[in-house]
Amino acid sequence: MELKLCQEAMDKYDGSLEKIRGWAVTLWIASLGWSFQVRRKEVVLLSIVVLFTFWVLDGLNKSYREGYKARRDAVAHALREFFERGSLPTDFSSPNLPLHIRRFHETVKNMFRFHASLIYVVLLIVSAILFVKM
């Protein structure tokens, strides 16, 4: 049951990641469209602010997900040992629930992982090019 609860929490955060990235791209496109409509390059800066905001939310959400992944992995390791040796590891205790406070370091680390940062970096480069060319 514990593994199922942890996996459900991880799935919830995965769904949030999809929504965050979808909204980031949607609002980025809208802000660029607005900048072309009003022909003001300052509005392109709005697209950069939008991307950075959602990039931070993406990293924060990923750090929450990793807390549940660590809990799931600890439980899975204990169960694996139990079935292999017939007893739980001697140092095993119930893993702590993930804390959702003081996540700055994990958030920044997750923001700059290749798979998470690729979309934001590409869109930021496009915004920077458009800002310079307008």
What does this structure look like?
The chain is mostly helical. The protein has one domain (about 1-134). The protein contains 4 helices and no strands. Helix 2 (about 40-85) packs antiparallel against helix 4. The chain starts with a helix and ends with a helix. The model has no long low-confidence stretch (mean pLDDT about 90).
Give the helix/strand layout.
Layout: H1 2-38, H2 42-85, H3 104-111, H4 114-133
Helix pairs in contact: 1-2, 2-3, 2-4
Task: Quote the distance from N terminus to C terminus.
Answer: 56 Å
Structural domains: how many: 1
Overall geometry: elongated
Low-confidence stretches: none
SSE pattern:
HHHH
What average pLDDT do the residues reach?
A: 89
Report the structural category.
mainly alpha
Number of helices: 4
Q: Biggest β-sheet, characterized?
A: none
Summarize this, please?
This protein has 134 residues and is mainly α.
